[in-house]
Amino acid sequence: MNSPRPRTRWAGSLAVLLLAVVAPTGRGPAGVTTVPVTPAFVPVPAASPVREDFDGDGYPDLAVGDGHATVGGRQDAGRVTVLYGGPDGSSPGEGGRRAVISRATGGVPGAPVAGEGFGSRVSRGDLDADGYADLVVTTAATSDAVIVWGGPHGLSGATSVPAAVGQTGDFDGDGLLDLVLFRPGAGDGAAGTEATVWTGPVRRLGVPARSAALDPGGLAHVGVVGGATGDVDGDGRDDLVLSAHCGAGASCTYVYRSTSAGPVRTAGHRGGPAVAVGDLDGDGYADVVADVGAGAGAGAGSGPEPARRFDIAHGSAAGVGEGAVWATVTASPAPEGPGAAGADVLDAGSGAGVRLLDTDGDGCPDLVAAAPGERAGKAPLRTLSGCPAGAVPVPVHRR
Asked: Which long-range contacts (CB under 8 A, 24 or more apart) does 228-231 make?
């Protein structure tokens, strides 16, 4: 459990299966739509929590969020497309089998609302400890996110949670996934964000084992828009990295190191409308990547789209603190355009525009990103190979 290796399971060969949608069969607290809970279920901590496998067949699955999708005639209502993994590789085309989840899906609370951005960000993992990964679908507004529950037939049924943004991770190292919920206020961060850590397991009624506030003072004047998790210091606990609006149109990145008392902020960095966490250099510690964007210092791309800049802080046994050296790399759009492996990073306009995925099958995560403001599945990708073939970083001043 205390291996320094980040426990994220990178997506490999993928196929897709049909979604079995289960109609709601009960009502939870405050009218929340739920699915039945298995009687006498006793959660069992896993050596490595299930992160990507929604149907328990042993193959990782992809969830492709598109917060800009029109659903039921309502623009930007949003949806998520699920591509289920299998032994025959991915099949995202017309002949492939997939599932689409939106507010119009049976068992999902609510109805499509214009501008809600349902699916702008997604997070995943086995929250109820039943051996199947679940999907947390968050929004671009202040409306509630939902947990869509995994099972032997895939994702079905959903429960509302009191937040717009959610991130999963094993923050206490007990082998059970936890969930951090964020409720940002309106405006450019000035209204602040209310954040709560739900310690797992999370029951399907939407009730955690326990809960506690996260950094109420530090998040009082910033608006959290997304984040990522990974073991930055190799202590067996997932650490938390957040992207936020921090006033005057600026974005900021915040790093939280997980301790026995919960996540504690250790570093802040200017820039980062989107973030990712993964072991880019193959040293066994997850690294932090902040998408800084195009502009000064980014250089010019070879095509009509400019190069994009990313700042990287490498993980270590000491974690990432205020004294960390951030380095910068740049990447230009890939001429071949987006592919299936990077599909669920392509919503850069809503803070979900960068992810670390093993796109070339070498066992190392690669940095994949979309052009800012582009819609999911439409943006040109930027890619940088990880581990031995990684781009050489250029040190920059920490801001």
From this structure: 228/167, 228/275, 228/276, 228/277, 229/167, 229/168, 229/169, 229/277, 230/6, 230/8, 230/169, 230/277, 230/278, 230/279, 230/286, 230/315, 231/4, 231/5, 231/6, 231/7, 231/285, 231/286, 231/315
Over residues 266-324, the pLDDT tens digits come to: 999 998 888 999 988 888 899 999 988 764 444 444 445 567 788 999 999 999 999 89
At 183, the pLDDT band (50, 70, 90 cuts) reads very high
SS3 of residue 348 by DSSP:
helix
Tell me which residue has tokens 């910033």: 222
Residue 183 · residue 194 · CB < 8 Å:
yes
Taking the CA atoms of the chain, what radius of gyration do you get in angstroms?
19
Q: How many helices (H) and strands (E) does the chain have?
A: 0, 25
Query: How is residue 215 written in tokens?
Result: 């950094």
Only one residue has tokens 């992207």, namely 243
Q: What is the DSSP letter of 336?
A: T
Instruction: Give strand pairing partners of 244.
Output: 224, 252
Provide the whole-model pTM: 0.77
Q: How many whole angstroms separate alpha carbon 24 and alpha carbon 107?
A: 5
